[in-house]
């Protein structure tokens, strides 16, 4: 059980379906579809996709194409706060609003934004995947009554294409993430990191990225890919011997050196997947490389493997590092008991600047209520290292 595992057969199985896909930016594809729609229906001035997180029952902006004005980005809310969208999800049917001024209240941030930007009618289409709600597609117009039945029928065909684009992009990344998360079960039949830990830290990372978006100019698809790639941060641990990975206590210096080799192993695995299965064109694939290679770097240069400092550490790696460290503090490990959330928040606050990127810590602290919701939603009693 102590020899490093062979993961090649597993990787082939996980990525084979992706080998024949041709990737380009989801945003670029959306703009292309929007241009074709606009040529036939000039009143359609905005297309946008919001994704749904069924675990937290929340909606979040993902990608849009807008003719003019500002876009609604880095925004999310509970679906319970939008009863009309909840009704669309339950019915599975599209909805037309011919006069937004009289149809929506304007109490929520997204409603106020729609009215402020001058939109006056809309068509909303649910995006389904395997009979489960993936999100919503919005066609918006600044013209009242812009969606008569013939236009709706035409747009539903375009909506099906957009749904396929979004589903394909997310399914490809989710296939890699989900498959690699199960790698240990196919090899050593052991859990390298519990599913709950990965679910928590990925959502912490998305939350942090969302909060950083205005100041750092982050797009919604960047935020989503941080969330999608974050669980792969420690994939190299597949090759760490059990005697070290599962040791019930702190590692000595020699064992710690072996443990740190998981970063190089993870980089090799990521590159092998990218090269062997033609994933180089997958949008934001460099984020995967950066997260795997640099999430153990620290702002003061005390991290590993390259001793990077400050902004030399890719932003997505800084984001994932904060999410990972916070969850490590708040959950049980093979060598320690879980800290209380209060203590974890206090400790992460002390790490700002020297060890972790201060804005990522501020983002986590500013969203404490959402962090606690994530922490309570995803629990697993299995200690991890």
Backbone CA Rg: 22 Å
> Describe the biggest sheet?
6 strands, antiparallel
Helix content: 40-55%
Summarize model confidence as the mean pLDDT.
Answer: 85
Distance between the termini: 17 Å
Order of helices and strands: HHEEEHEHHEEHHHHHHHHHHHH
The number of distinct helices, counting runs of at least 4 residues, comes to: 17
SSE inventory with pairings:
Elements: H1 8-15, H2 26-40, E1 46-53, E2 58-66, E3 76-78, H3 83-91, E4 95-97, H4 100-103, H5 109-116, E5 121-129, E6 132-141, H6 149-181, H7 183-187, H8 195-216, H9 220-229, H10 242-245, H11 253-260, H12 262-276, H13 285-294, H14 315-330, H15 341-350, H16 358-366, H17 368-377
Antiparallel strand pairs: 1-2, 1-6, 2-3, 4-5, 5-6
Helix pairs in contact: 1-6, 2-6, 8-9, 8-14, 8-16, 8-17, 12-13, 13-14, 14-15
Note down, in words, how this protein is organized.
By secondary structure, the protein is of the alpha+beta class. 51% of the residues lie in helices and 11% in strands. The chain has a 6-stranded antiparallel β-sheet, sandwiched between helices. The chain is elongated and about 70 Å long. The two termini are 17 Å apart. Mean pLDDT is 85; it is low at 1-23 and 184-192.
